[in-house]
Amino acid sequence: MYYIGIDVGGITIKIGIVDKAGNILSKSAIKTENINPDLMIQKVSLEISKLLQSSNLSFDDVKGIGVGCPGAINGKLGVVKYSSNLKWTDFNLKQSLEKYTNKLVRVANDADAAALGEIIFGVAKNYNNVIMLTLGTGVGGGIIIDKKLYEGSNGMVGELGHIIMRANGHACGCGRKGCFEQYASATALIRQTKSAMLKNRDSLMWQGVQGDINNVDGKLSFSCAKLGDKTAIKVVDKYVSYLSEGILDYCNIFRPDAVVLGGGISKEGEFLTEKVVKYLEKYDYGYKGTPKTAILTAGLKNDAGILGAASLVAEEF
Amino acid sequence: MYYIGIDVGGITIKIGIVDKAGNILSKSAIKTENINPDLMIQKVSLEISKLLQSSNLSFDDVKGIGVGCPGAINGKLGVVKYSSNLKWTDFNLKQSLEKYTNKLVRVANDADAAALGEIIFGVAKNYNNVIMLTLGTGVGGGIIIDKKLYEGSNGMVGELGHIIMRANGHACGCGRKGCFEQYASATALIRQTKSAMLKNRDSLMWQGVQGDINNVDGKLSFSCAKLGDKTAIKVVDKYVSYLSEGILDYCNIFRPDAVVLGGGISKEGEFLTEKVVKYLEKYDYGYKGTPKTAILTAGLKNDAGILGAASLVAEEF
Question: With pLDDT > 90 as the criterion, what percentage of chain A qualifies?
Fold first, then answer.
């Protein structure tokens, strides 16, 4: 039996055939078009057929189709309530795709799917209770409880970047002030890096951007910190303290077996996680005498979207 | 079939026989003694026998025994890892009580048991995903997912008062700074009340304490706010904003069907919840277009401890 994983993005829709071990047999991608979403899903279904055919498989060999989609999703119903990337509103993606394929379809928010992907196919395979934090433009999240994706009663759960880190702090896109996302996202790190550079004209980081502050990205402070630049080290340490405080919050709430970090910043790997662990140890992982939470970086790399989506139908649900 | 609920406290241990509808048939209490915990549990077992006898019941009529206990509990093992109130450390309460009673025993932290009690017997009966916040000396919590108590892999979960509300804020007993508990507990409200009184000598609240600030309690600001005292109104509004920000955090994480408020402050009832709801509406319950979370106060009053404990064996687990 095989699973189909579909990673819906604003620019392309990636499709893959995945086996039980999490190997991608074959994959393909089509352009996301600004057309009626049901028509778009019809095109996706055709692409699945082609992909199966080219792999000498048929829909009979497929257990189900998982779809990871950006935006607000009601996973129980398979409805995309709202996706700003796709401009889809109240679209029953599950119903549409099931109509064209006659297969069981399960839809989830892409960050949720990524979290499940890590527990089914990735780095968190041996754990039961896992929190995933995706450190990118924002901070996304996924909650795995007893190896299952937590979806709540009406979806839209796991907005883990939107807990308050500093009451009345930085304004957040969600309407509140001081969200975790405003301190621990790549966007926040870039802001923190720029601010430190403006105060420290002698920082090595200026060389890293050829003197143009507009070139600052989420990697700059980390790479210059590794070279010993004092300003960069301070930026990284401050960023790690914000990130770790958020992780401590999630330790106290869930006492998870593992926190998996994904997204751009997570590519710093052990250089990042070692610093986080040191901070967590200083605060006893949130509380005295608590079991320690493993801090990992995402195991599924480039194909995380397809594998996360496939995991939606690979898990028992 | 009946359930036994045991509410272990630092001063007394309350025991009750509970039926399926959540009625307490009979109850009793014994003094908590500073003796070997296994001996204490032997005394509890004797008291259960007496209580059953006086109700013309036997252990055969009992499905199981639930125990709510303060401190750090590993619910899966039934072990009290540490309880400062009881001075018990690494005590296998489940094993001890099962040895003396030959009945199935389940142990949980008392705040967790209270949360489950509300979903099995109390105000949250019709909901699946519920967060309970106990607003007392500290802020305790319980997490109910799909009508089941979330216990994590090693217990000690649901420390919902220990998420950061203000980075580097008030020092907290847990070792961190700026925890939610430092802003939303009854202790915090008393501190906030005193601080406002010292700045406003003309506040009605001074009359409420006969001029002695040591008499301030968690009710004072609420009762004077109801009488129109401007300082008291400001204190309550500020307190509500802190509490609501924490609730918004939990809305964004869990998107729960309901948040149940327990503990001393929750006795303010609708006067409190109406203010909280107004605040949540202002922030779209954490995010635009999200399903609304019901804000309730605990339904189980004086016997909440016994009923919460009994619910541990009343739920399917």
Answer: 92
